[in-house]
Write a structure and sequence with these properties.
The structure is a single chain. By secondary structure, this protein is mainly β. The chain is built from four helices and 17 strands. Strands 3, 4, 6, 8, 10, 12, 14 and 15 form an eight-stranded parallel sheet that branches. Strands 1-2-5-7-9-11-13 form a seven-stranded mixed sheet. The chain has a two-stranded antiparallel ribbon with strand order 16-17. 43% of the residues are buried.
């Protein structure tokens, strides 16, 4: 199951009805198209209505084709602990119509998260997305520290994130991650290839100087070890 927790009351809603209420193409700024995202068209979405408060940790992620659909929390999501939104090969979409607040946040590989409000992470936020990964936040984003490892995936924010920025050592972040083209001109948000705002690598420090030594291996970040530490609530910064 994508996520099972007693605080989340998933109910099946027919995909035909849910797609009219929760238009994921629009909410994801066109980054998620259900017809292309899932191996076959889902017969239903899972919807939890109302605000959700969870004593973490909590994880969201598809484990097989049966999990490949949209999971909607129609309200705010508060996690008193770490929130994980990591999956690989199978695409389940977490849509939170309100805001998300948590202590730590990590989304890796093919994680797909769409947040209609803001994202507030009191401690550490880590993104390490693959090409199919998506993180869309329509409200303000703030984190104690945001570590972006891969420079890949589709990250679309409504504006610059607040907090200390760290980047993966040696990663070649694309020019458009700064919201500007190679000549320094602001990108047009109406262009398909121009996000509203992404991770600004130009303001970020090399993460190898900030992470504990056990998370650096041969000059690269050990993302799996980092993910496990975050989920277990262990410190990762010096």
């Amino acid at each position: 199951m994508f996520c099972e927790h007693k605080a989340i009351k998933w109910k099946k809603v027919s995909a035909k009805k849910a797609r009219q209420t929760y238009v994921i193409e629009e909410r994801s700024q066109g980054l998620i198209d259900p017809e292309e995202n899932f191996p076959e068209e889902p017969s239903h979405y899972f919807v939890s209505t109302g605000d959700v408060v969870i004593d973490g940790p909590i994880g969201f992620g598809a484990e097989d084709d049966d999990d490949a659909t949209v999971y909607v929390i129609d309200g705010n999501l508060t996690v008193r602990g770490p929130l994980s939104a990591t999956q690989g090969d199978f695409y389940g979409v977490l849509l939170v119509t309100g805001s998300v607040t948590c202590e730590d946040f990590e989304s890796m590989w093919d994680g797909q998260v769409v947040i209609g409000g803001g994202l507030t992470v009191s401690r550490l936020m880590v993104t390490n997305l693959g090409d199919a990964g998506v993180l869309v936040v329509r409200g303000p984003v703030s984190a104690g520290t945001w570590l972006e490892i891969s420079g890949r995936g589709s990250i679309d924010l409504s504006g610059p994130a607040k907090g200390k920025m760290l980047r993966g050592p040696g990663e070649d972040f694309p020019e458009w991650s700064t919201g500007r083209d190679e000549d320094g001109n602001p990108l047009d948000p109406d262009e398909d290839d121009a996000p509203h705002y992404m991770f600004d690598a130009s303001t970020a420090s090399d993460a190898s100087t900030a992470l504990r030594p056990e998370f650096i291996e041969d000059g690269e970040i050990d993302a799996d070890a980092l993910r496990d530490a975050i989920r277990e609530g262990r410190p990762v910064l010096r």
